[in-house]
Description:
Low-confidence stretches: 1-21
Helix content: 10-25%
Number of strands: 15
Radius of gyration: 20 Å
Strand order of the largest sheet: 1-10-9-2-8
Number of helices: 7
Amino acid sequence: MKPESLFLSLLWLTPALPALADAPPLQLASEYAPHYNPADFLVSEKLDGVRAYWNGRELMSRAGNVFAVPGWFIEGFPDTPLDGELWLGRGRFAELSAAVRRFEPQDEEWRRIRFMVFDTPDSKRPFEQRSEQLKQQIASLNVPWLQWVTQQRVSDAAALAALLDEINAQGGEGLMLHHRQALYTAGRNQNLLKLKQFQDAEATVLAYLPGQGKYTGMMGALLVETDDGRRFKLGTGFSDEQRRNPPALGSTVTYRYRGETATGLPRFASFWRVREDAP
């Protein structure tokens, strides 16, 4: 990396990248909170994958980009929309991200990838009914890499916490909660919740702050901005290689944190990864 790119002034800011006009109308999750009744929801594992939307003809990313996939992978998919995650397995996000972002898909990589489906956006039925119909539909299609995401009921907060502990112990990322009686609603709402050991959020990279000590000559921290305009420094969670080649200015990064300060900034924020929406 050129030295001048590491010592950018804080006054030099790069605007957020615009959303694509054809981004699919996905339902997005809010954070779980103690006042919710877990018995009102169906619960599944939160998969550490890449969100994908099947529009009946092609697989699209959350941002609206079309994934380059082998023809055989989508052969046998239905002509109705599906919402899910491309997934390789727990702890394999980096490998998955590299595979789905290629302009020329590699058969040997895609033969290990599964499209894990958890919803049918066009259905007008409550989630509990949609999920059961989806389970039956996917079973009838008999496409091995097209799979239904298992949903289960939990009786109370204690049972939910026990399930979260079990998933974490197995290397999982957390839990997703779909309200049993809710219709599919595009945008962020409280009918779909996420529960993880750590909270996470996204921010846009505005500038690089120079490193000191053993990080001299490398990136020391990122100056980032959230969607609601809050700016803060993100200085932990990076490997040395990421400090030598930090996320691009204007890119979106995901960070983990534990609660917020009185001014609304994340506590103990730590870089997690670059959000990879585009193939």
